[in-house]
Specification:
single chain; mainly alpha
Length: about 90
Amino acid sequence: MNTGVVLADGSNNSTAGIVAVVIIAIIFTAIAVSIVSFFQLQKHRADAVAYASYRKLAEEAVEKQDQLLTELQTLGLKVEEIERLLRSVE
């Protein structure tokens, strides 16, 4: 008397193996895509932080250039006054 349960017969063994390999390949591919996407997102975040600091640096440089321009204009006016004073003494 045979009381064992037959889960799969020999004819479906190769098909079941192929299906199992395909499922495992899909799972590994999904994991790989998720990992690559995660690291690309981290790189994008790091680039965004770097660009923000460059933007801040550029804004500070423009402000300092404006300050220097104002100081140079003030200095130019003072030099003109000194030249005028020296010409009036001659």
